[in-house]
């Protein structure tokens, strides 16, 4: 969302203010400061999160893999407390348009009070939002199947897509508090001026058009937004890196970069499951053995769990594994955060294993990588359908069950299944080669989309022109 805001600000006559909490601002402030120093009209307005009012430790303002479930409602409560302050800011800043994340549905009413358009931002694929709408409108499919793993069709979509009940989010299968929140989100989306996605027409054009029909609003794909704004290494290496760890370990950086540069083009598998995932030690063992047995070089971003029992179980095995693969020069482990943009664009990377988080999917396609898909939570299983069934640039590892973002889950994907998927993506088989060719074609399309005359570039220009016209009309009609 920040990259999209930066892309807006790079167009003449557009002035951007990002409103967020102080803790969240640390994740991207360095990028905003660099843009501002280059003369780009963009700034951050950070507000204090009311941690003490909602009985939260100071500094917990967002979610990560270690956020306890009982703290989640308190974070939402804190955001609700900030609503009047943010509404006042909209007035003081004389906003001409409000672009807000879908989890702030109240902003559609705030925009209406000011007589300005509200645009909803989705950190997800167009397909995933269309799939949710399909389940709401034709929701009986998953209720009619006999078992949890029996397939049913997502009705009314541009492609015939099948899923099982196990792959659906819990709030769809059985109403809970999140179901009510999603209902509010979808209602506010239908009352918004339009929606923006980090996608591009050549990737999801059919679903961009379907979204317009399903929700009855406008829709613009403006991506890949990272390619608009992260042009040099300083942008790429610090993207998503919090200030508290902003001083990058130069020795570590030199280590993985030297290791990648020593490898043949397209020979390395990149393995990463995002910042919100955590695996039990039993799953880490299976992944490690699959990677070691694959015969392919790999670089693996590993999260350390804060669960003491799990940590003790995994520590010894993983340390031995790391020592073994480094000594054989077969693998490289990065613990914690990794500069993903720089790694993905290294010529030695030939494919990746991903949890199907939308940012990672788009970044992988931007550099033309085929994927082993391992969806876990949120809208990941919908994204897998796009990658595997629609675009045919990925192969599923076989994970069958959706889980919450801060849970280990029940099932363990075995090393044989992981190895099979890796060999399909990285091996010399004809089908894998055709998949890699298709992935490279999407990389070419992604680059063209943001160039002058490209689909995403045209969408940005069109949206800005519309917003200017709306402002002129408002001035004519109301003198404001």
From TrEMBL:
> Example GO molecular function term?
glycosyltransferase activity
Q: Which InterPro entries does the record associate with it?
A: UDP_glucos_trans
Determine the domain of life of the protein's source: Eukaryota
Keyword check for Transferase, yes or no: yes
Would you tell me the protein name for this molecule?
Soyasapogenol B glucuronide galactosyltransferase
Organism whose genome encodes this protein: Stylosanthes scabra
Which family, according to the similarity comment? Belongs to the UDP-glycosyltransferase family.
Q: Which UniProt keywords apply?
A: Glycosyltransferase, Transferase
